[in-house]
Amino acid sequence: MWFLCVFYHRLLDYRKPEVESLALMFGAFDSDDGGQDGGEHLEWRLPEHHHPDSPFHFVDLPSEDVARDIANRSILVKGIYELWGEGNNYEELEDAIKDYPDERKLPYLSPESTFRITVDSFGKVISFQEQNERIQSLAYIPFKGQVNLRNPDHKFWLMETDDYGTNNGLPPVVQKRIFFGREVGGADRKLLPTYQLKSRTYLGPTAMDAEMAFLMANQAMVKPGKLVYDPFVGTGSILVAAAHFGAMTMGADIDIRVVRDGRGPDCNVWSNFKQYGLPTPIGLLRADNNLPPWRPGLKEVFDAIICDPPYGVRAGGRKSGGRKLLKGVVGPYTVPDDKRTDHIPSTAAYSLVECVHDLLDLAAKMLVLNGRLVFFYPVLREDESTENHFPEHPCFVLVSASEQILSSRYSRVLLTMVKSSPYTEEIEEEARLKHLEFKENHLKWMEDGNLHSAVFSPGESVFVAEGDPKVSKETKPKYRGKYV
């Protein structure tokens, strides 16, 4: 069945991957492989004359129940609709609605039901009076039920785009298009204000914003009964989102002061879960991603691993050992029993390339087959050759890579990987060789840890003479694409 899927106009690269992950989770594909690596993808198409970044897309889904489940769970889907008609003007729209089969329309027009019609637009503002006029123009639809604006049985939407040109910061629209349809499901946008960071009890400098944390949880197909692990848990923002969707959670961090103490008994990771009435994590460990604490032979424990590794922009990665210990200047030491409670172990710099290799190795061992690894990976945009150079592992298939541009020089990409084969000694050796090849051929900033200086170093200044007529033209908003 074809449905009209209307997105919020933001995080453009993340929209389709989120819907496809949710479609798989809700049974849209007749497959048990856990991911789209077997070729299962939704079929999409654009309305006539629409830009690929348009918020309007048609998507083929197996049933209305699946469409409703996706829309109600999604963060970036505004609504999914059964389209009754579309056209370039209201005359064409009327003809299309009248041609739509009566057996599909009449169940929602009965006298026993209540309804509401909402007028919406993209790229233009419609006054209240104009909205009423547009609703009155739909008099040819034989509604027999009562209007209920608060809690109707059926919600109908009249949506339109205008041919507003290309210079207002939105994707260019060549021709006006009008849609009318019945809402199948819609996102609950109250979710994000509820979990917004500014009202969070315990925050750190790298806390993941609520919208992105929920998107990551959707990409990982988090649901009740699943066990989710974050090896760089920090203040727990990602695990809060996973717990909201019903998963059991577990986290680790190398900084014992974060996972154990926080800022006091009422301001720590645990208090973030209590704030929202969520189940607390089954465990928070002081653990080093470079020296994982799991006993030998322990495998396939977690259903998903979701994290934001430290890549040296806001915070650098650390591993156990200390500089002198790693260089062999001093030998390993044993902490005396009387100092174990308050002892904070020495740490040293942890390069991104090593961090990502350890993360992939951990996920290959500890994820169940078809489990998902979802993590952010930084990209310097000055070098176009980095676009497709993502870390690889023989156990994983890359499902999606969604870019979020953060500045003119720097962006981060959300990588979603599916574990497609079990971990073996042969796989371990193959992964080690892949890591060495990646380490040798990739950008030097990953190993040297100078991403921070590359992002924040002064750029080239551009001076424009006063009175230059070009200034006014350049300041007009243009379509920003992925910057949205």
TrEMBL record:
RNA-binding is among the record's keywords: yes
Keywords: Cytoplasm, Methyltransferase, RNA-binding, S-adenosyl-L-methionine, Transferase, tRNA processing, tRNA-binding
GO biological process, any: tRNA processing
Domain tRNA (guanine(10)-N(2))-methyltransferase TRMT11 N-terminal per the UniProt entry, residue ranges: 49-189
InterPro entries to which the protein is assigned, alphabetical: DNA_methylase_N6_adenine_CS (IPR002052), RlmKL-like_Mtase (IPR000241), SAM-dependent_MTases_sf (IPR029063), TRMT11 (IPR016691), TRMT11_N (IPR059073)
Enzyme class: transferase
A cellular-component GO term for this protein: tRNA methyltransferase complex
Protein name: tRNA (guanine(10)-N(2))-methyltransferase
Gene encoding the protein: LOC115755138
